[in-house]
Amino acid sequence: MNSLRSNAIAALLVGLCGPVVLPPPAAARDDVPAEVAARQNPVGELSDRDVRYFAKQFKTKCARCHGPDGSGSGEEAAEQAVPPANLTDPTHMSGRTDGQLFYQILMGGGERCAMPAYGPESAHGWTEEKVWRMVAFVRRFAQPTGD
Ligand code: HEC
Fold it and tell me: Does any ligand 1 atom lie closer than 6 A to the CB of residue 101?
């Protein structure tokens, strides 16, 4: 994205959001309620069937921004005011709690980007359990393969 455009978007965000912190270059929502951020993923290990199912969901619903490999290389990534994070980066991902990932998928990008919400109240209407399963799937991008 050219910097004039990103400055304009940043200025717009400042106008919309009040006292502001400019968005960090690659991150996620910074307004996750503490109680949600602290939640642990209640679903255990994904079955092979879950993995295949969520891989397909990711490909059809998320890859246009996040890239097929989760690296943030999707064709619509450059259009987002804040770039999608690199979900394959263990350093970045170890700084994010399951609850933060859950909230982002549940509620979408809010003011920060065009990521849709997927939770029960959204047009996608995923159950909270399905959102948690997607969190577990997303975690796999930054884990060593072979499991
Ligand atoms: C229209 C583009 C778009 C789509 C579609 C999209 N996302 Fe995102 N997503 C983003 C952007 C941009 C960010 C970074 C947002 C920010 O910093 O506020 C993000 C952030 C995230 C985060 C937080 C990452 C972190 O560092 O905490 C997760 C998890 C996530 N997305 C998962 C998904 C999943 C799963 C789907 C599909 C079900 C999806 N996204 C669909 C654009 C998208």
Answer: yes
